[in-house]
Amino acid sequence: MTQTTNAQGSTFAELYAAAIEPKTTQHDERHGGAYDRGGADYYYGKPEDPHYFTGGTSWMACDTRVTDLTPGERQAYLDGYADAESFGAQKDWG
Fold this sequence. Notes:
single chain, mainly alpha, two-stranded antiparallel ribbon, 37% helix, 4% strand, globular
């Protein structure tokens, strides 16, 4: 298994340690939530597309893809995307 690093050579463990430092804005970070989806979209190289899932993210658990977000949900998505972008780790498709 290969280890994911960002452009600066930071490992996932290093990026995770930085990510769990206290933030000034707290978001619901559940798997499938708006913050999580923002980070996942950046990681997979997708453009910003604010959304979240009412269930998990697997085909069996995904209840509904929600795109009509409240201002707070939209901000959570954008913060997740921006936080992931600041870490710089993206999936290596090669």
